[in-house]
Amino acid sequence: MSIESNALAQALGTFMEEATEFLGQMEEILLRAEDEACSEDDLNALFRCAHTIKGSGGLFGLDEVVRFTHVVENVLDQLRKGHLSFDSELISLLLECQDHISGLISVFANGGEPETTRSDELIVRLQVWLGGEAVPAASASASAAAGKSEPGAAEHWHLSLRFDRKILQDGMDPLAFINYLSQYGELAHVETIVDALPEFDDADPELCYLGFEVALRSSASKEEIEGVFDFIEEGSNIVILPPQSKIAEFVTLIESQQAEVARIGEILVACGSITAKELEHALEQQKRQAEPERIGDILIEQGAVLPPVVAAAAEKQKRVEDKRGAESKMVKVPAERLDAMIDRVGELVIASVGTHSRISGLQRPDILESADVLISLVEDIRDMALRLRMVAIGEVFSRFPRVVRDVSKELGKDIELRIHGADAELDKSMVEKIADPLMHLVRNSMDHGIEPAEVRRARGKPARGTLELNAYHESGAISIEVKDDGGGLNRERILKKAIESGLASADDNLSDEDVYRLILAPGFSTAEKVTNLSGRGVGMDVVRANIEALRGTLDIESVPLQGTTMRLCLPLTLAIIDGFHVGVGDSHFVIPLDMVVECIELPADVGDRDYFDQRNEALPFIRLREIFGERGNGHPRPRVVVVRFGARRAGLVVDRIYGKCQTVIKPLGPLFSEVPAVSGSTIIGSGEVGMILDVPSLVRHCAAAAGKRPARKAALSASEAVESIAS
Amino acid sequence: MGNETLTVPGDVAKAADPDNAGQVVTATPVVEQPYLAFRLAGEVYAVGILRVREIIAYTPLTSVPMMPASVRGVINLRGSVVPVIDLAVRFGRQSVAVGQRTCFVIVEVEHEGATHILGLMVDGVNAVMEIAASDIEPAPAFGTRVQTDFIAGMARVDGNFVIILDIGRVLSIEEMAVIKSGDLLE
Q1: Which residue from A337, A399, A431, B59 has the least number of CB within 10 angstroms?
Q2: How far apart are the first and last CA of chain B?
Q3: Distance between CA atoms of residues A422 and A599, nearest Å
Q4: Do B65 and A629 touch (CB under 8 A)?
Q5: A-interface mutation test, from B59, B70, B71, B74, most A Cβ less than 10 A away
Q6: Which CATH class is domain A392-571?
Q7: pLDDT in the model for residue A92
Q8: Residue A124 in this model has a pLDDT that exceeds 80
Q9: Domain coordinates of chain A in residue numbers?
């Protein structure tokens, strides 16, 4: 790929990113407008979003985006000027338009040519709001023809453009404005003025030295044409001469642009803005009347050059400072650079723990003290490094107002969304991965949870349903709740369905919680009719699998007639966990600390049974030594680490217990993808590799294996017990 | 680091240099490729050196539970966890005892578009040798103690046969990751 196309691709990427941001902003404002009156700032911001998308879209030649957004922009302009006001229908329409623009942009991003039918349909609907307002014809060919109406109405405008020299540094392209002018009419003639161009050595490539004289045949109003230059008025010299301007105005123009008079004159003639005769006349007139004063003027002007230059310099300096201030608040860093750093910090933690443990053996309090300081600093750095990846959960939540709005319209239900704790933070990679499961839960709650208004009224509840999204931190994890005030889960119906589909049997004595968990089983659906949104029975099991893949849990609480709460509990990060370090034979293993309940000695009378009685409950256990085929140093009195996951408990028999440790997770790669008991590895303080146990899958595996091994009579009851915890 | 062993001897570079090609007696220019030769259970094998990242001394391994025996375990290679393959077991033979010259050859393999690092446990490395493509013969249909599709070719070096391994096949992650139910729970 050449450098140029590379740069273009990069610029296009930036445009996409920006457009997405602007579209998001539009959506946010529109949704807000639905509930409360829109402030003037919001209206202006809306207009600006559309305008910028159109402008930069034009830069990349996205004609369809420009054509469509132009109409949207007109409507927004009317809103901004108070000629129109928001109602729910218009907001819906604008939201559709916003979706459409985003669709158009992504079509372009993928290198396709979008269809125009949908644009045309929306444009027709937008035009209803615009009434008599002149808008481009809604035909595919009209892309660049806005305002290029009947030739009779088009008149000759003359535009003299001297852009602010810093325009390029401000990220704007003069050419884009000229291209954009063609929206309003035909560019009859464009002359480039290079007089201001300095010697090559003195020229600053970041400055714009060019000026343009443009002859435009257009029927647009002066305001519309002026509107093109809305964003660049400051510092630029834009003169717009309406059709049939007086010669005197051209003369003023010639003077004001401080270029060589004759040359400007020639250009005007070339543009067809004045005739040669008119020019001659004008120059003569100027010579005759103004010459004495002109010299004085020029002198004064030369004298006066200084203050504005100083002011401009000061202004520029201030702008640079402002920009710097804004930059210091936010730094965009490529994710992989951040990941590389966190990786290294992980190494640092491992190395420092190793060093510390060696120093501890030295009996040198002075060195030990400094090692202590070092280790606490390293831990600080680790926490900070991990926090760099933290983003507010609001990033995910922000898409839900729109979803709730659209889905509730679709379902014909009135549902209010309340969001709490949008500032709770979690790892960026987690944020990306929980979006889909959350979306599913929200849709489910709206479809199945919240009852139709009549039912709600009959039940004495407000007709408007409430859906809450709550996020909060709880002991090193984040909990996210999707809570509705609907009818709650129907125990009988779930059970009936589960028995029908063979997920449960009628004589199982299941607790409420167990029954609710049935909805997470694959292929389960109680919805009587399959709707667009849910009811196909794929989903909840996928949601559960997704959440478990993130080492999270999903709990369901439900009160009949009062509502359901789905609670996701997720670790804050996937990179480092708190682990519990144990030894089996010569190997080291790490059990996620949040699963560890307690540690006890293996009762001596256990024999070769695989369960023992703990506080009147049969606790099945797994002898890791046997299962892993470890032959290394054993321990005469093995320990049992009691683990809990979900609602189940099991014991893991180990030889040694080393205690709690910070565990930097090292993924094991595809070679180990099928190992059932290990979810990753880590490097422990001594530099050896330890395996991180995947407790749920280990237990499941042992239960399955025990089921196939009926020979060992003594183990039979244990395998049943294990099976019961694993199922 | 073992990186030094990877430097290509000057005469290899010369052989590849077209200016020196005229000095070669044979009519066709000899294309020699460097290979790393190592010993394993009494035989000499070779792998293309471009696949080899480094050679490190034997360190105790951490075994990964429930993996087939061909995956000997993992080592900590400067902070990365690298699996080590017991080639003898992979070839269907008895695992070899760790000797004084046992070492790990760290190689790169491609899997689903990503490069993965694996270690090979060998009895010892011999040398980097240049083998001309013309000296490499196809593997015999039988007679070798290694399954034929693991062999890229047989080369005769100083009167002895060297088995050149098709490392992509030998270290096929798809194949090695498969856990037969018999491997589990002994």
Answers
A1: A337
A2: 38
A3: 38
A4: yes
A5: B74
A6: alpha beta
A7: 84
A8: yes
A9: 3-142, 155-294, 337-389, 392-571, 576-726
Nearest to A410 by CA among A534, A524, A526: A534
Q: Which CATH architecture has domain A576-726?
A: Roll (2.30)
Q: What share of chain B is helix, strand, coil (3-state, %, to 5)?
A: 25, 40, 35
The Cα–Cα gap between A91 and A515 comes to 42
- Residue recorded with tokens 């446990």: B121
Q: Note the pLDDT of residue A296.
A: 39
Interacting residues of B50 by C-beta distance below 8 A, sequence separation 6+ = none
Decide if A136 contacts A220 (C-beta within 8 A). no
Tell me the fold of A3-142. Four Helix Bundle (Hemerythrin (Met), subunit A) (1.20.120)
What mean pLDDT do residues A545-550 have? 80
Residues above pLDDT 90, as percent of chain B: 13
pLDDT at A302 over 60: no
- CA-CA distances (angstroms) from residue A316 to A233, A310, A313, A321, A355? 16, 10, 5, 9, 53
pLDDT computed for residue A708 by the predictor: 60
> Which residues of chain A does B111 touch, with a Cβ-Cβ cutoff of 8 Å?
670
User: In the beta sheet, which residues pair with residue B129?
Assistant: B35
Tokens describing residue A268: 């005007």
- Give the amino acid at A376: S
Best residue in A672, A679, A701 for a mutation probing chain B (most B CBs within 10 Å): A672
Q: What are A28-41's pLDDT values in tens digits? A: 888 888 777 777 78
Q: How far is B71 from chain A (nearest CA, A)?
A: 9
Q: Residue B157 is encoded by which pair of tokens?
A: 């070096």
Flag if B62 and A690 touch (Cβ within 8 Å).
yes
For residue B105, what pLDDT is reported? Answer: 93
Residues in chain A: 727
Average pLDDT on A618-645 reads 82
CATH level 2 (architecture), domain A155-294:
2-Layer Sandwich (3.30)
Per CATH, A3-142 and A576-726 having the same topology is answered no
pLDDT tens track for A439-456: 888 888 888 888 888 888
Closest alpha carbon to A693 in A547, A594, A568: A594
Q: How far apart are CA A90 and CA A96, in angstroms?
A: 10
Q: pLDDT tens digit string along A551-582?
A: 778 888 888 888 889 888 887 766 677 789 99
Work out the angle at residue A655's Cα, subtended by the Cα atoms of residues A651 and A661, and round it to the nearest 5 degrees: 80
Are A676 and B66 an interchain contact pair (Cβ–Cβ within 8 Å)? yes
Measure the CA–CA gap between B166 and B186, rounded to whole angstroms: 30
Residue with token string 């007639």: A561
Q: Where are the domains of chain B?
A: 32-178
| Residue in A627, A671, A690 closest to B177 by CB | A671
- Amino acid sitting at position A165: R
The amino acid at residue B185 is: L
For tokens 């659906």, what's the residue?
A525
Q: In what order do the strands lie in the sheet with B52-57?
A: B52-57, B103-111, B114-122, B80-86, B71-77
Share of chain A above pLDDT 90, in %: 2
Cα A482–chain centre separation: 20
Q: How far is A687 from chain B (nearest CA, A)?
A: 7
Q: Which residue has the higher pLDDT, B55 or A107?
A: B55
The C-alpha of A585 sits at a distance from chain B's nearest C-alpha, in angstroms, of 11
For B75, nearest residue in chain A (alpha carbons): A689
Q: What is the mean pLDDT of residues A495-515?
A: 77
Is the confidence at residue A305, as pLDDT, over 60?
no
CATH placement of domain B32-178? 2.40.50.180
Q: How many beta carbons lie within 10 A of that of residue A620, not counting itself?
A: 26
pLDDT > 60? residue A385:
yes
